[in-house]
Specification:
This protein has about 500 residues and is α/β, with parallel strands linked by helices. The protein has 17 helices and 19 strands. It has a domain of about 190 residues: FAD/NAD(P)-binding domain (3-Layer(bba) Sandwich). Helix content is about 35%, strand content about 20%. Helix 1 runs parallel beside helix 17 and helix 5 packs across helix 6. It is globular.
Length: about 500
């Protein structure tokens, strides 16, 4: 008889875990509270005139999935994707024109020296970063428990101290002199939450956020929207025999007899399991399994999110004022900073703590989704972009921050020749993310990438060295949501690694 697995949560990690476990011969039931799968890789729509438009309400870009997951799950044969090869464009206040972030380290080094007066060594930074990323990726592939001891044996103590256990400020000071270079490289440290650049392990976020391999470490787009990825994986899993129960909630449990009571459309059913996998946010996981006080959870974990997102639609293709001579420059990623020094960068990221400010401008990242789609289907007439920006507090919904939405749009429109063609926009805040996707404090990675929540500490297991993806001290209960190593941004990787641990443990016990 096949071993029975119940997975709670049909976001990307639950879907990936289900795919690997089903292909390994397990009987898999996937339980999802919402009416559709996808988690934060989902879509919303609006009507304008006679047309219905779709946009990604959560995640926008693909890039941090592992290529072997993309291939082995069957996704690679189901999706159309596009990766801009054009250099990224970066803008700072009081600097004329953009700086181009070239893929080639030699070109990048020359550009940073020319535009930012950089006297450090971008080539050395990229070379050492590649070593760390290679080590991280090998751990993903082999689903290894993260270990400082192994990192030191492979990389040496100096690189580990600098890139893994160290702080981001020291790391950036080691390679760069210009604050512009440091701010650009530091964006990922504060992307999900207000992590201090001086906090231990904050350096590790930089290579982690470059550790995707589906597009060789670069970001790209799924045609029409990233929700097609999770919808396609759902269809693949159903074809494999995964039983997906939508609009379903766990209403009771009997852990001694390995069963959970699931309510679907008013009907209740006990599901028996050999292994129970929680692919949810960590607060939900604790509320399902443990007699856990919510106040205790918030006091024991760093959770604050500070990222805003704005989706905008244009009736015609956007005409950018600043471009680069490249065939896909319209789809190039663009970064607009509101601060000019590293200290101001950090001050803005910390200002929203305690709701001292609703909005402290830091930077915005522009994802040109419409231009990317037009490379695949040139007949598309409208345009759309997603703007991911910093820093917002948890205090308000987007619909209540009209002044912030207008401020972000005005800064963006300075770089667009035809802003009058923008006919629709929507602002989402950390509070919106909390309410929509159940992120405990609106953090896109569910828990902050901070000291005691990074690398070998990014687990809820009571015995991580032996059972890293185990949940608390329960046998045969596992956690692989976004708050597990590596993090939610590394799409599907916690789900893959958790599935491999389960498969190994069964083989070792049989």
């Amino acid at each position: 008889m096949s071993r029975r697995v119940v997975i709670v949560g049909a976001g990307i990690n639950g879907l990936v875990a289900a795919n690997y476990l089903r292909r390994a011969g397990y009987h898999v039931t996937l339980v999802e509270k919402k009416t559709s799968t996808g988690g934060a890789c989902t879509t919303e729509s609006f009507d304008h005139g006679d047309t219905r438009y779709q946009y990604p309400s959560g995640a926008s870009v693909l890039g941090l999935m592992q290529d072997f997951v993309f291939q082995e799950t069957g996704l690679s044969s189901k999706l159309k994707t596009f990766v801009p090869e054009s250099p990224k464009l970066v803008f700072f206040p009081n600097l004329e024109g953009p700086t181009y972030i070239y893929r080639d380290p030699i070109q990048l080094d020359a550009e940073l020296k020319n535009k930012w007066g950089e006297s450090g060594d971008a080539r050395a930074f990229r070379a050492d970063e590649a070593k760390i990323i290679s080590f991280i990726q090998s751990g993903y592939r082999e689903a290894k428990t993260p270990s400082i001891e192994e990192a030191k044996s492979v990389l040496g103590s100096d690189l580990v101290d600098l890139w893994i256990t160290g702080d981001a400020r020291s790391l950036l000071d080691h390679y760069f002199e210009s604050d512009f270079s440091k701010m650009y490289m530091a964006m990922t440290v504060t992307e999900s939450g207000p992590v201090s650049l001086s906090e231990r392990y904050s350096a590790f976020t930089i290579p982690i956020m470059g550790s995707g391999s589906v597009f060789n470490g670069y970001y790209g787009f799924v045609f029409q929207g990233i929700w097609n990825l999770t919808q396609s994986l759902s269809a693949i899993n159903i074809g494999l025999g995964v039983d997906i129960k939508l609009s379903s909630s766990l209403v009771d449990k009997d852990l001694d007899n390995k069963k959970v009571l699931v309510e679907t459309n008013g009907k209740e059913e006990w599901l028996y399991y050999d292994d129970l996998v929680l692919a949810t946010d960590p607060l939900t996981a604790h509320s399902i399994i443990a007699d856990y006080n919510e106040e205790q959870f918030f006091s024991e974990n760093k959770l604050t999110g500070s990222s805003g997102k704005m989706n905008l639609f244009f009736s015609k293709p956007i005409q950018w004022k600043e471009e680069v001579s490249h065939s896909d420059s319209d789809s190039a990623f663009r970064f607009i900073f509101s601060v000019g020094t590293l200290d101001a960068f950090e001050s803005a990221s910390q200002e929203i703590l305690g709701d001292r400010a609703h909005y402290a401008p830091g930077f915005m990242q522009i994802y040109c989704e419409g231009a990317a789609d037009r490379t695949i289907d040139p007949s598309i007439e409208h345009d759309r972009i997603a703007v991911f920006f910093k820093n917002l507090s948890l205090s308000s919904n987007g619909e209540d921050l009209g002044s912030v939405e207008e401020e972000v749009k005005q800064q963006l429109f300075k770089h667009i020749k035809n802003p009058e063609d923008c006919f629709w926009s929507k602002l989402s805040t950390p509070k919106d993310l909390k309410e929509t996707f159940y992120f405990p404090s609106g953090n896109v990675d569910q828990t902050m990438l901070a000291n005691e929540q990074m690398y070998f500490d990014r687990t809820f297991s009571s015995n991580p060295s032996e059972n890293f993806y185990g949940f608390l001290d329960h046998e045969n209960i596992y956690y692989c949501g976004a708050a597990a190593y590596p993090c939610g941004s590394i799409a599907g990787t916690p789900g893959y690694m958790c599935s491999q641990q389960i498969i190994r443990q069964q083989k070792n016990s049989s």
